[in-house]
From TrEMBL, chain B:
Pfam families registered for this protein in UniProt: STAS
Name of the protein in its database record: Anti-sigma factor antagonist
Stretches assigned to the STAS domain: 3-101
CDD domains: STAS_anti-anti-sigma_factors
Organism annotation: Marinobacter halodurans
Domain of life: Bacteria
Gene3D superfamilies, per database record: STAS domain (3.30.750.24)
InterPro entries cross-referenced by the UniProt entry: STAS_dom, STAS_dom_sf
Regions crossing the membrane: none
Length: 580, 101
């Protein structure tokens, strides 16, 4: 790379002319102006001289023997490549066609014979300025190109790391469909799904303010917390609180995450929705009614824990229902006139989808028709989740091998939650954690969690809070049930729920005995126990589920104590590769 | 997009008007509008009568102003929103943080 030349500095200039006298006159003039000159007597010499001398400006006679100026100009321009080497033709021609051909051959200007010293100096200076400017622009372009290349490389590396942390979880489950750009994390969009130990799934869809690495960095802890806590059995409230707290602490004030949390329990047909700042989602009931899942909360990371609300909206759902959420890329998709797709069109597309068609495809089609674009914009994330029978989304029960004999075999413990702690603390992740120390139970974490969760829910909601399950038979009562649950929890007094866990392992398997006792008045269990299959309606499903999972389920005392026995066995046929 | 500021007669309220789209490109001029060492200003009013649209980075800028004005104790009002702007503010439930008229 040559040094920067200004008007005052010497340039290397090549002069090619077959007339010795003309060559002498011109080279003397140019030398007097302070430049280094090399001369050539024909086109071939000129090209050769260009190679050796690397001139910054070339003055070429048009008519020369062996190779004329036009051919020499073509060769020189090809050799110069991307750098600008001005070629000025020396000519006594005045015919416009001939002059035009000179320029077509790559010439930049003419100098007419006889030579004028002042014009020559002015032209050399003008072309030198152009040359320097061209070089500066090329250098800047190269710097930008290198920066951009580095950014793309860094994003690819970051993306690989990110994919390991924020993997897509169970987004490939048969009941989930989604549209998201592969690099969406750098647009600030997030979409995670994770199976819950009890068999349902949690889904988080969201949109960070801002783009690029800052958004991706914020998404990392969100993914870690979401996957970690979901698989340990925490409920939406605890997970959301943790994510909010983390983002509030680590992100700048003006960065936050609009998100919706979807918590689905397929066994009980429960759907909980928390929407903080995402466009209204939709719950499509089979039979085409559509309920709006509107944003009721501040986005994640905006306010400190004290002000953060994790109240969820609860819905009873059944097979065939579908939940749809989109990030703001959908309502904000723009057409050529600068008009936005908007929530009204989104809702119309959702509501207008026939039962037998995918609502995801219908919405994407409607957006594409509206924008007229062939490709969807990159920052558009859309998700649908279908409510399906539990068996459709659950892994086959994993069997356990003899090597599962390691780990704690015989143990017991008692854990009691009392008073206000009942309102503030969920003991299930802790209890599950204790049970998961037993390798034989670890493979059945989902079932164990369900047993613990059902026992706890019954003890807390019916035993301690005295909520009648019959309320849950109607959609209105269902809402009332949970509202009343919140209210009664606030004045729970000195009630308590006690768990006693006992485990022992034998030669063929193990047995987990769970006693759950609450401080409530109990209930007439002889009546309840007659029913093993839930009748139409929502109540009684919990007990039926417990009976399915456990080897025995017995009530004691006034009905305020339940004892569940859960047995697991080794599978002799299982090969070692399934241990883990 | 243009941002203008003026003071109430008693000088205690700073009124910031935003014309056109309120988005990331307004970042610096919006901050310049309120970041000064004037101790007299106790209240802030964002006048959105000429604001056509705001994006999520504009929401972030409002949070920065709220923080500057004293966080939970700060007094920031958002006024004269059109329905689009109002809708964006209410999807994010910013009524919980600002007084919006």
């Amino acid at each position: 790379m040559d040094e920067v030349q200004t008007d005052a500095q010497a340039l290397r200039i090549l002069i090619a002319d077959d007339s010795e006298s003309d060559r002498l006159i011109l080279s003397t003039m140019v030398r007097r102006q302070g430049h280094d000159v090399m001369t050539a007597a024909d086109g071939i010499e000129a090209v050769e001289g260009f190679r050796r001398f690397q001139p910054q400006i070339v003055l070429l006679d048009v008519m020369m023997p062996r190779m004329d100026g036009m051919d020499a100009a073509r060769h020189i321009k090809a050799l110069a490549g991307e750098s600008l080497v001005p070629v000025i033709f020396l000519t006594s021609l005045s015919d416009a066609d001939a002059l035009a051909r000179c320029l077509e051959a790559g010439g930049d200007d003419f100098l007419s014979k006889p030579y004028n010293r002042i014009i020559i100096e002015a032209k050399i200076n003008a072309f030198n300025r152009m040359r320097v400017m061209h070089r500066t622009l090329s250098q800047q372009r190269d710097v930008i190109r290198a920066h951009n290349q580095r950014l793309v490389n860094e994003q690819n590396i970051a993306k690989r790391v990110f994919d390991n942390v924020a993997h897509t979880g169970c987004l490939d489950a048969p009941n989930i469909r989604y549209h998201a750009s592969p690099m969406s994390v750098f647009n600030g969009d997030i979409l995670y799904a994770c199976p819950r130990p009890s068999g349902g799934m949690n889904i988080l869809i969201g949109d960070f303010t801002g783009h690029g690495l800052p958004a991706a960095i914020g998404a990392m802890p969100v993914a870690e917390i979401f996957y970690g806590m979901t698989s340990k059995g925490f409920l939406s409230g605890d997970i959301l609180r943790e994510i909010n707290q983390k983002l509030w602490r680590i992100m700048p004030k003006d960065m936050f995450c609009c998100a919706a949390f979807i918590e689905l329990d397929f066994h009980l047909g429960n759907l909980s929705i928390w929407n903080g700042g995402l466009p209204c989602g939709f719950l499509l009931r089979r039979g085409a009614t559509v309920e709006r899942l509107t944003s009721a909360h501040l986005p994640l990371g905006v306010v400190a824990a004290e002000r953060f609300s994790v109240d969820v909206a609860r819905y009873k759902v059944e097979e065939g229902d579908t939940v749809l959420f989109a990030t703001d890329g959908v309502p904000e998709a723009m057409n050529a006139e600068g008009e936005m797709f908007g929530e009204t069109r989104l809702e119309a597309a959702v509501a207008g989808t026939p039962d037998d068609q995918s609502v995801l495809d219908a919405v994407l089609r409607a957006v594409a028709r509206f924008t007229g674009a062939e490709e969807y914009s990159d920052d558009l994330t859309l998700l649908t989740v279908d409510v399906v029978p539990p068996a459709d989304v659950e892994e086959l029960p994993l069997r356990v091998t003899q090597s599962a004999l390691s780990g704690p075999a015989t143990w017991s413990c008692e854990y009691e939650v009392t008073g206000e702690t009942l309102a503030q603390f969920n003991p299930l992740p802790l209890l599950l954690h204790i049970c998961m120390e037993v390798p034989g139970l670890r493979r059945r974490g989902g079932e164990v969690y369900t047993v613990l969760a059902e026992l706890y829910t019954n003890a807390l909601e019916h035993g301690v809070l005295g909520l009648p399950s019959v309320w849950k038979n109607s959609p209105e009562g269902f809402g009332q049930y949970y509202a009343e649950r919140e209210r009664r929890l606030r004045t729970v007094g000195d009630h308590a729920v006690l768990f006693r866990l006992e485990h022992k392992t034998g030669r063929k398997g193990g047995e987990l005995r769970v006693v759950c006792r609450d401080s409530g008045v109990g209930f007439n269990y002889t009546e309840q126990t007659q029913r093993t299959v839930p009748e139409a309606g929502y109540a009684g499903r919990g007990l039926a589920l417990l009976r399915q999972l456990c080897d025995s389920l017995t009530h004691h005392g006034t009905g305020n104590e339940v004892e569940a026995v859960y047995r697991w066995t080794f599978d002799p046929d299982e090969s070692e590769q399934h241990t883990g | 997009m243009a941002i203008h500021t003026r003071r109430s007669e008693d000088g205690r309220t700073l009124i910031i008007s935003i014309d056109g789209r309120f988005d990331f490109s307004s970042h610096q001029s919006f901050r310049d509008a309120y970041e000064h060492d004037d101790q007299d200003v106790s209240d802030y009013v964002i006048d959105m009568s000429e604001t056509t649209y705001l994006d999520s980075s504009a929401l972030g800028m409002l949070l920065l102003l709220r923080d500057y004005a004293g966080g939970d104790a700060g007094r920031v009002r958002i006024e004269n929103c059109n329905s689009d702007v109002r809708r964006i503010l209410s999807i994010s439930n910013f009524e919980q943080l600002f007084s919006i008229k």
